[in-house]
Design brief:
heterodimer; A: about 325 residues; mainly alpha; ABC transporter involved in vitamin B12 uptake, BtuC; 14 helices; B: about 325 residues; about 70% helix; about 0% strand
Chain lengths: ~325, ~325
């Protein structure tokens, strides 16, 4: 019943000399904030042709969705890595978001397509999140709980769980009558180009709620990063803290997957970049850096997709490509040891 | 007269023949032995049998047997029991090749498309082996991990271009393994995989030796690189043939050889027939499940094997001694 297995290698990767030590994190964070403000302004105004009555609400909700997703992915990944004590695991790599898609599908399957499409979307969303928290909790307790398991085994098992959940969702979607399925397709396949506007406010509420919980236990993050033994020695209720964090992570992953669909490697990308750029290992710096970078990339990326490719590609494909390469590089460098 | 090995193999082959016959009589159109001989419907039943059912069943046997066999060859050559075409970027590379040739030369005959896909599969596999060489191999599990993610990266390239060219739906239809579209005239390419299986069986002892490592192989007077190249060409061509005609069948080449290894050990000449027989039988059963579970609709084999295969793979990984091997 302990999480120590996957906490064993926590502080081994911190020895690389940092190049950016000339400046303090606050300065860099300020600069990042300026960049984020710039990219958001650009997103709101680019090619708007003065039609503000339409542009502001339309792009405003879009920005809100992107910011929510950025925040959810960045925070959940950084905390997942803190709890698991390494730099390469991420909720989405461990199959969290595939699990959410599976839950969505099973719910539609259980309720019947008609009932599911007439059900209040917010209510359905909250139900899905509740089931997600339950199952994600059970699954990861089981994976990380019992015997000692190597990090590579966990990674591989997580990826295969992702394949399993995706295949099961695919199978269920085909078990639904094809005619009924057509009705549900939009509900099940959110993407950056067509996110679900119905869920925006519920998502925002969930994110704020989760953040309040995290804020209250925020002082424990740096202690958790020291590893299980040290944290317990320092008087932390380790089991309880980790459980709370895993629940919030499950909620955040549900929110981002419900809004824009699964994105496997994005969290890994921004978290590792945040460690590099922040130049510190304190969470009060790393978390804002990760969130800022995440917003910068998602909003900037979506802008490039919309204006440069005129919607003719999807941001998640590009993220998958770059993130996969970064993942392999991390493995080669031995970060995942 | 027969030793135990031959007897057991014989029983397995008989079981497969039984399943084959069963498979032929499952489907939307009502085909039964009585109807076949009743001669009352102007040979319509016979037509369904010859045009759809028998080609489909043959395709299943050929694809299942050959994918399982190349999985084993890859495991021996890479000296890692978690490697197979879908955990090494081979399948995704073949898919990319198929997309490229379909876009650039849509008129090319299917055989030519297959060759291009083989070439891409070969390059993808070489890239995988190249990356592996630069990784400090501390754990056997890193190898499939890198392979799966490499496959994802190559898959993202394919999806990127398919999305831009509005081919995403067709691409998904091609690449999700399914025998639903198999008709007489659309599966014959798979006979190439039979030829390749025979070639692999002839070279079986060389693969066994190569699996013992470069120095050992060279000591025995074999050209290690040549054996490796031969093996990879067989792997790439079989993968390409199956991807072009049927689509992706994930984890097949991983599950079957590992089950057989538990029973029969590591000698390729001994295990190869078993791997082929069990591979064919596994796909046959999965395909029947896919056809029956949502009758009269059909669930593609790629999805069924995705579920069954990933459960078996997880089981292999999480068994107590899994990481020792």
């Amino acid at each position: 019943m302990s999480l120590d297995t996957f906490l064993s290698s926590s502080s081994t990767t911190t020895k690389r000399p940092r190049r950016l030590t000339f400046s303090r994190p606050a300065k860099r964070l300020f600069f990042l904030g300026l960049l984020v403000a710039g990219v958001i302004t650009l997103f709101m105004t680019l090619n708007s042709r003065g039609n503000w009555d339409f542009v502001i609400p339309f792009r405003g909700t879009k920005i809100l969705a992107l910011v929510l997703v950025s925040y959810a992915v960045a925070v959940s990944t950084v905390l997942f890595q803190t709890v698991s004590g390494n730099r390469i695991l991420a909720p989405s790599i461990m199959g969290f978001d595939a699990l959410y898609v599976l839950i969505q599908t099973v719910l539609v399957f259980a309720l019947g397509a008609h009932a599911a499409s007439t059900l209040n979307p917010q209510l359905r969303f909250v139900m899905e999140v509740a089931i997600m928290v339950l199952f994600a909790g059970l699954l990861y307790r089981w994976l990380f709980g019992r015997t000692r398991r190597s990090l590579h085994l966990l990674l591989l098992v997580g990826i295969i769980f992702g394949v399993l959940f995706r295949s099961m969702a695919g199978m269920m979607q085909r078990l639904i009558d094809p005619n009924e399925f057509a009705v549900l397709q939009d509900m099940l396949f959110a993407s950056f180009n067509s996110f679900d506007r119905n869920l925006l406010w519920v998502s925002a509420a969930l994110i704020v709620g989760g953040s309040v919980v995290l804020w209250r236990i925020g002082h424990t993050f740096d202690i958790l990063a020291l590893g299980r033994e040290t944290a317990v020695n320092l008087g932390l209720n380790f089991q309880r803290t980790v459980t709370i964090i895993l629940i919030v992570i499950a909620i955040f992953v549900s929110v981002s997957t419900a809004l824009v669909g699964p994105v496997t490697f994005f969290g890994l990308l921004v978290a590792n970049l945040a460690y590099q750029v922040a130049g510190t290992y304190k969470h009060r710096w790393i978390l804002p850096f990760a969130v800022g970078l995440s917003i910068l990339f998602l909003v900037g990326g979506q802008m490039v997709v919309e204006s440069l490719f005129s919607f003719n590609t999807s941001l998640s494909i590009v993220v998958e490509f770059l993130g996969g390469i970064v993942f392999i590089v991390l493995l080669i460098r031995g970060v995942g040891r | 007269m027969f030793d135990t090995y031959q007897k057991q193999l014989g029983i397995a082959v008989l079981a497969i023949i039984g399943l084959t016959i069963l498979s032929i009589f499952i489907g939307v159109s009502d085909v039964t032995p009585e109807k076949l001989f009743a001669n009352s419907d102007d040979g319509r039943t016979l037509q369904v049998l010859l045009i759809s059912r028998i080609p489909r069943t043959l395709a299943i046997l050929l694809a299942g047997g050959s994918m399982a066999l190349v999985g084993m060859i890859m495991q021996i050559l890479a000296r890692n029991r978690f490697v197979e075409p879908s955990t090494a970027g081979t399948v995704e590379s073949a898919g990319l090749g198929l997309l490229v040739v379909t876009v650039l030369a849509p008129e090319m005959p299917i055989f030519g498309k297959m060759l291009v896909a083989s070439l891409f599969a070969l390059m993808g596999t070489f890239l995988f082996l190249r990356i592996l060489r630069s990784i400090p191999l501390r754990s056997v599990l890193v190898v499939p991990l890198v392979g799966i993610v490499l496959g994802g990266v190559i898959g993202a390239i394919t999806t990127f271009f398919a999305y831009r060219l509005d081919l995403l739906q067709s691409l998904n239809a091609w690449l999700t393994g399914s025998f639903a579209g198999i008709l007489s005239g659309r599966y014959e390419l798979l006979w190439i995989s039979l030829v390749l299986m025979i070639a692999a069986y002839i070279a079986a002892d060389r693969f066994t030796v190569a699996g013992m490592g470069q120095d050992f192989t060279t000591n025995l007077g074999l050209n290690y690189n040549r054996v490796m190249t031969l093996g990879l060409i067989i792997v790439s061509m079989v993968t390409a043939v199956v991807v072009v005609t049927v689509g992706m069948i994930p984890f097949l080449g991983l599950i079957v050889p590992n089950v057989v290894r538990q029973m029969q050990g590591d000698n390729v000449r001994r295990t190869a027939p078993w791997v082929i027989v069990i591979g064919a039988g596994f796909v046959l059963v999965c395909d029947m499940i896919g056809r029956v579970i949502r009758f009269p609709y059909e669930i593609p084999i790629g999805v069924v094997v995705g579920v069954v295969g990933s459960i078996l793979f997880l089981f292999m990984l999480l068994r107590k001694d899994a990481h020792v091997a």
